[in-house]
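ESCALATION

Customer reports they have been waiting on this structure for their group meeting. Please prioritize. Original submission:
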Amino acid sequence: MKFICLISAETMMEHLSEADAAALFQDYAVFTARIRASGQFVSANRLLPPETAKTLRVRDGKLQITDGPFAETKEMLGGYYLIEAADLNAAMAIAADIPGARFGCVEVRAVADDAPTRALGFDVPLPPRPDPATGQPATVAPGARLGQDSR
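Update from on-call: job pushed to the front of the queue and completed.
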């Protein structure tokens, strides 16, 4: 089963001291290497701080855009890991090792895998984007997933 681990904290990387951010990046590098080696890693990414966000809604056919996130909360969504795990308990055991769990929180939620969701084709790979330097289709290393560095 796939699970998303949503990482939230009161302080984003950009607001940490240089030394604290470097140490935390190292902790994430170690965790990421370990989960990749286990075969349970699907994807992950870090988000920029909420002040870089826009929230939009369409009401009565009209687009409404506001700065930042909608929710008024101290904890901000800072990133995620998409993982493979046998069940929720196994996913929570993995999530407990995510460095952000030490000072923020990690919400673990199963990814929908029912027939109507699969019919939407979310798991169908997209063709590779052209290499900007050559205009030729980009090559992807065997076993690499879209969105991951193929080096």
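Sent to customer with the following note: Strands lie at 2-9, 41-46, 54-59, 62-67, 76-84, 105-110.
Escalation resolved.
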